[in-house]
Specification:
Blueprint lengths: L1 E6 L15 H17 L4 E4 L12 H10 L5 E4 L2 E2 L5 H14 L5 E5 L6 H4 L7 H17 L3 E3 L7 E4 L12 E5 L4 H10 L2 E4 L6 H17 L10 E9 L3 H14 L9 H7 L3 E3 L1 H15 L4 E5 L7 H26 L10 H13 L1
Parallel strand pairs: 1-2, 1-12, 2-3, 4-5, 5-8, 8-9, 9-10, 10-11, 10-12
Antiparallel strand pairs: 6-7
Helix pairs in contact: 1-11, 2-3, 3-5, 6-7, 10-11
């Protein structure tokens, strides 16, 4: 079981004192958070991709390459790589390069994005979002798996005798998760290829994602990748932790109430009841996170959103201390003990490399 954090890289005013970090400060804070994640024993750091204010992570591989040079263990990932508006050739080359720099500690999450104006900025039509995702990902897989590619499709110029460079490390492409909050077509795509499916269910009730994940598992088995309960599932979550529950509620409430994403809507109490958001003590976070397995089955990756809504860097680092020391060790022990032996771990570069060697010898 892998545990980690993901960031959306928002630049948000702190509602308690009216201060707003600069883009430079926010970017540096994200790096510091990634280093802290490794320090406290987390397995994954993932960054989103955005091209519009108030977000700063427009170039994930640049940031992850910098973090790779300053870490040694943590897996570096994305919490969205925009397959719809990026060129598959550039994705193939950027992430293969990152693989080499990070000695394989890389995977990525494909997504369509939920910001409509991004599509025309990159010359695409949002009405073609699903077809774009399907065609571009098929090309990306081919670029990583074939040394010389001849290709023709609907949404970009043809390729003739093209080789993307560098080639994936050890001829093993990065593992891909497909993230979705609403599209069964994306769950179908993940199942077809035997890739991972990531349900970032931080905004919607669990029932919606239970249907998506069940559909993905069913189709994963249909395509012959294993039993339904062996499908590779990741989940999002949110937490604000203090040793005492009431302190957590009092401290986090102004951030929640004024957050651009979900402020001025449901109350904090309503939101925590209906979504994965947990505000409280370490034990309360443990208890609620353990219910995810009851709702979705055994799964392989749990990522928490911790640095959002204008929370100061100092507070985020304190959150990571509590997560790493008091929450994740218990969750890891409990969830690993409950998981049946036939349910696999999350793929890593080393496990994929070993599987490729076994396949070549068969």
């Amino acid at each position: 079981m892998q545990f980690g954090i993901f960031t959306v890289g928002d630049v948000t005013t702190d509602p308690t004192n009216g201060t707003t970090p600069t883009e430079h400060e926010r970017i540096k804070a994200m790096v510091r958070i990634a280093l802290k994640a490794e320090e406290v024993g987390l397995d994954v750091f993932a960054t989103g991709e955005h091209h519009n204010p108030p977000f700063v992570p427009s170039s994930p591989t640049t940031m992850l390459g910098h973090i790779a040079a300053r870490t040694s263990k943590i897996i570096l990932s994305t919490s969205t790589t925009l397959i719809t508006t990026n060129d598959p050739v550039k994705i193939a080359e950027d992430f293969a390069m990152l693989q080499h720099l990070a000695d394989g500690r890389v995977d990525l999450m494909m997504g369509r994005g939920n910001t409509g104006p991004v599509y025309p900025w990159f010359g695409e039509d949002i009405r073609q979002g699903i077809p774009l995702a399907i065609e571009k990902y098929a090309l990306l897989r081919q670029l990583w798996r074939e040394d010389v590619v001849d290709w023709q499709g609907k949404f970009r110029t043809p390729l003739q005798g093209f080789t993307s460079t560098p080639r994936p490390l050890d001829d093993v492409p990065p593992f891909v998760w497909h993230g979705s909050i609403r599209s069964p077509e994306i769950a179908e795509q993940a199942a077809f290829y035997g890739d991972g499916f990531f349900a970032n269910h931080i905004f919607w009730p669990k029932e919606h994602f239970q249907q998506l994940i069940a559909f993905y598992r069913q189709r994963f088995e249909h395509y012959g990748h294993g039993q339904a309960d062996q499908a590779i599932v990741g989940l999002g979550g949110q937490a604000f932790i203090r040793p005492k529950s009431q302190d957590a509620w009092n401290e986090f409430r102004p951030y929640f109430d004024n957050a651009p994403v979900y402020g001025h809507g449901p109350s904090l109490e309503e939101f925590t009841e209906q979504t994965p958001l947990t505000v409280g003590s370490p034990q309360e976070v443990i208890d609620k996170t353990l219910t995810f397995r009851e709702h979705f089955g055994d799964y392989q990756r749990q990522l928490f959103l911790m640095d959002h809504a204008g929370l100061p860097l100092k507070v985020v680092l304190e959150q990571l201390d509590l997560l790493g020391e008091h929450v994740v060790p218990v969750l890891r022990k409990e969830l690993d003990a409950l998981r049946p032996a036939h349910v696999p771990d999350a793929p890593t570069h080393e496990s994929l490399k070993s599987a490729a060697l076994v396949g070549s010898e068969a």
